[in-house]
Amino acid sequence: MRNSQRRGGPPSIVEVARAAGVSTATAGRVLGGYGQASAASRTKVEEAAQRLGYRPNGLARSLIHGSTETVGVIVTDIGNSFFASAVRAVTDVVRAAGYEILLANTDSDPAAEQRALTVMWEKRVDGLVIAPQGPGTAERLRTMAEAGLPTVLLDRPLAALPQVDQVTINNTACARSAVAHLTRLGHRRIAVVSEAARDLDRLRDAPVRDGDDERPSAARLVGYLAALRRAGIDPDPALVVHSPYDRDAAERAVRRLLRRNPDVTALFCTDNVLSSGAVAALQDSGRVCPDEISLVGFDDQDWTTLVRPRLTVVRQPRRELGAAAGRKLLERMAERARSRAGTASAEPGDGDRTDTGAAEAAGNGREAVDLPAGERVVLRGRLITRDSTGPAPRPSGPTPLAAEPSGTMSNRRAPGSPSGEDEEDSA
Amino acid sequence: MRNSQRRGGPPSIVEVARAAGVSTATAGRVLGGYGQASAASRTKVEEAAQRLGYRPNGLARSLIHGSTETVGVIVTDIGNSFFASAVRAVTDVVRAAGYEILLANTDSDPAAEQRALTVMWEKRVDGLVIAPQGPGTAERLRTMAEAGLPTVLLDRPLAALPQVDQVTINNTACARSAVAHLTRLGHRRIAVVSEAARDLDRLRDAPVRDGDDERPSAARLVGYLAALRRAGIDPDPALVVHSPYDRDAAERAVRRLLRRNPDVTALFCTDNVLSSGAVAALQDSGRVCPDEISLVGFDDQDWTTLVRPRLTVVRQPRRELGAAAGRKLLERMAERARSRAGTASAEPGDGDRTDTGAAEAAGNGREAVDLPAGERVVLRGRLITRDSTGPAPRPSGPTPLAAEPSGTMSNRRAPGSPSGEDEEDSA
DNA sequence: ATGAAAGCGCTAACAA
DNA sequence: TTGTTAGCGCTTTCAT
Q1: Residue A160: which CATH number?
Q2: Which of B292, B300, B344 is nearest to B320 (CA)?
Q3: Which of A8-12, A39-43, B154-158, B344-348 has the lowest mean pLDDT?
Q4: Of A303, B263, A306, A308, which is closest to residue A295 (Cα–Cα)?
């Protein structure tokens, strides 16, 4: 009873063919736009398809072609404005090439990430953009990449995956530049709010270099440490406060910090939601910014110019990050399509080794494409100097003779930025 | 040469079966978790699958089962924090039930929306959540819904689609409540920034009721007009300023408004990005808020409590909106699954009419499920009174004798809200 | 418990 | 130009 009874689903091509009085092959030819068909059958088929409300079944088509015109996107939280922007950009780029987006959130949960990867794999996405969580992911990703899935890492590098393209931001340099800005202003008690505070000890000895294996929060913490070192300041663990990516948690953390360490004169936030929590805490603390305490935020969101004082921030190219990842992915997918097309005759630059040890060694006895080394794109963020950072206040005690110039107690600008905002490179 | 040569793709079940020395049927049984298999073959198959890195092909599975475990989500812009939150909530709800998300942005472009719908259709999503653009979409959506695709409208009602579930917010009531708050404070020259300003003439006579056919921006404009009418104020078209959903455009629009109409004492923004543009323009204008001009924003974002004065806003339950849509969709999909399961024997509450006129009349000669009337869920937003709204200033001219009480010129609170923020219902 | 075979909806050789 | 047929990878009778 193939295709004879209606089963509730949409009409298939055989129903259209029957209605049009032609074979499924001809129906396919006109509806799929391949091969040739006479004008007569063309109209008959089109009319029938129209009447029945026919839409081709992409699943069947994909099953044959081996491609789904879909790319997977895995991030921690699409509700976070950073990823919302980045994903939007990825979408725009790949959609222009005809690809749709299968989206998954992991909430930084490795198990959720594993599940997401499995799903993407089973749904046979043509490519993958992922902001990976941890080293545990690397192995799985390598397996998938070696099995031929074009993959691009977004926002977080993975040293264990040199075969894979990685698009990131120079987080360490950005953070270093932000904190150097503070030390230059004379600050010495500089606190940082970070999701990676727990890794402090490990990061003390980490190389000061971007594009390695650290997640963004850790990379930024490394930058913080580097800037302190450069200024001859010994990092005080009490000033490295941990907070998860949650505004209220950040607010509480900063409040506690200020209570316990009233001598802190500057604060560096390593993420947009941490920044917003810190601003709230600062406002609540009654300490005036930047006179009593300076603040550098991360991620140049709209509201950072709306609050007073306007926030000095590290701006990261969120959309460009997503767009770059999308473009890289398109490249890789194109390459792969090309190589698959020519796969029957000869592998480019590689004879017809059918079952050499190399492939076996890759783990699963199947053709493990040895990929050209993955490219690393490191986009540059930069420090935007605005009004929330100013010279370090005199240490408490008897007021020194060289008093502050009068009339500048509020809304003071950072020195060297006479008007508006000032951009500072962070290379 | 079925499955014999490796074609670069992942291993199929026949390769696993061969490697395990069993038939594809048994391999399927153990790998798919259906039917029975002896412990012996089970281990053999599992071992082989493991070794080959086998992952079932979801496409083939879907082709058979007729379901993809995927729901489509179509919004205007996932980069907009409103949709980012809502989509996140949808994702969480449906993912818990095992569904993935196929995401598309339309940028309010009807053509893009049509394309997105086509794609979702061809990819055979099991359900659809959509923030529709316009009446043009309704027909297409109806076709799809009648063809059996569970569909839920998000954020924007469509009167032409009574068969479909709709989850929206009481936009008109919210806006009315916001503007009533202003009139109660004595404001009479109240401007509004809206994406729907061009529809002003049409909306003058629109019924003051939520859940009809207006898009959110229009519904809010209707609420604005209603509140003015109630207060006996004749709406001045010059105070209804248009702006697209773009922060800078909104800022320019408000700046122009204030230049041309210096007598405006209050401003109502109908969207989060418009709010942020308005705040910027206000700050730039040098007019002090709320003493010289009051402001009500829309959408309670984090930054609205960070700026000074803290913004009075209409809070809308963004996440709950998405969650409700997700839940409704799950319900519908479950219903449909149930009815499809029983379709071979008997339709529930409907004899086996095979080809009655009713189905034919639906347009395409196929089974047009006549759906139970769609449900409407209207979630309630509410006004949060904070510091950006205050009594209307005295009209300019000679200062009247009844002077302002001294010492309250800045950061004044709205009357009736002695401490913190005040919630006001908007039913 | 297992295997052979049909079939989901479509595309692609191959014949006619 | 058109129809016949095999087959994508899997599930599912139906025999055995």
Answers
A1: 3.40.50.2300
A2: B300
A3: B344-348
A4: A308
In the DSSP assignment, the letter for residue B109 is -
Q: Is A78 on the interface with B (CB under 8 A)?
A: yes
Identify the band that residue A9 occupies on the pLDDT scale cut at 50, 70 and 90: confident
Test B366 with A11 for CB contact under 8 angstroms: yes
Does B249 contact chain A (CB < 8 Å)?
A: no
In Å, how far is A176's CA from the nearest CA of chain B?
27
Q: What is the model's pLDDT at position B371?
A: 58
Range of weakest confidence among A160-164, B232-236, B271-275: A160-164
Reported as a single tens digit per residue, the pLDDT across B170-196 is 999 999 999 999 999 999 999 999 999
Co-location of B116 and B81 in the same domain: yes
Please state, rounded to an integer, the average pLDDT across all residues of chain B: 86
Give chain C positions with protein CB within 7 A: 1-13
Alpha carbons within 13 angstroms on the beta-carbon side of residue A259 total 8
Cβ A382 vs Cβ A174: under 8 Å: yes
Q: Looking at this protein, which amino acid is placed at residue A338?
A: R
> Does the residue B62 lie in any domain?
no
Residue A145 and residue A17 share a domain: no
- pLDDT tens readout for residues A189-216: 999 999 999 999 999 999 998 877 899 9
Chain B residue numbers with beta carbons less than 8 Å from the beta carbon of A60 are 63
Instruction: Provide the 8-state DSSP code for A372.
Output: P
Please give the residue of chain B at the shortest CA–CA distance from A126. Answer: B9
Sequence-distant (6+) residues with CB within 8 A of B164 are B141, B142, B145, B151, B152, B153, B158, B371, B374
CB atoms within 10 A of CB A291: 17
Side chain identity, residue A180? A
* Nearest-nucleotide field for B64 (CA, C1'): C8
Q: Is A280 on the interface with B (CB under 8 A)?
A: yes
Structural domains counted in chain B: 3
User: Residue A362: is its pLDDT beyond 70?
Assistant: no
Peptide bond into B290 cis (omega under 30): yes
A368 confidence band (pLDDT: 50, 70, 90) = low
- Would you say A255 and A284 are in contact if contact means Cβ atoms under 8 Å apart? yes
The CA distance from B307 to B275, in Å, is: 12
Cβ–Cβ under 8 Å, residues B91 and B101? yes
Specify the CATH number for the domain of residue A26.
Answer: 1.10.260.40
Contact A267, A296 (CB under 8 A): yes
Residue B399 lies in a domain: no
Establish if A195 belongs to a structural domain.
Answer: yes
CB proximity list for A66: less than 8 A, separation 6 or greater: A124, A340, B7, B9
Do A229 and A291 lie in one domain? The reply is yes
**Domain range for A35:** 3-56
Question: What Å value separates CA B119 and C1' D1?
Answer: 31
Do B192 and B262 lie in a common domain? yes
Over 60: is that where the pLDDT of A383 sits?
yes
A349: left (phi over 0), alpha (psi -120 to 50) or beta: left
Q: How do residues A339-358 score in pLDDT, each as one tens digit? A: 776 654 333 333 333 332 23
Report yes or no on A399 lying in a domain: no
pLDDT of residue A89: 98
Question: Does the distance separating the beta carbons of B302 and A247 come in below 8 Å?
Answer: yes
pTM across the whole model: 0.89
pLDDT in tens, A86-130: 999 999 999 999 999 999 999 999 999 999 999 999 999 999 999
Would you say the C-beta of A259 is within 7 Å of strand C?
Answer: no
Work out if B68's Cβ lies within 7 angstroms of strand C.
Answer: no
Distance, in Å, from the CA atom of A288 to the CA atom of A279, rounded to the nearest integer, reads: 11
One domain for residues B234 and B115:
no
Closest CA to B86 of B167, B173, B174, B195: B167
Please write the tens of the pLDDT for every residue from A287-304.
999 999 999 999 999 999
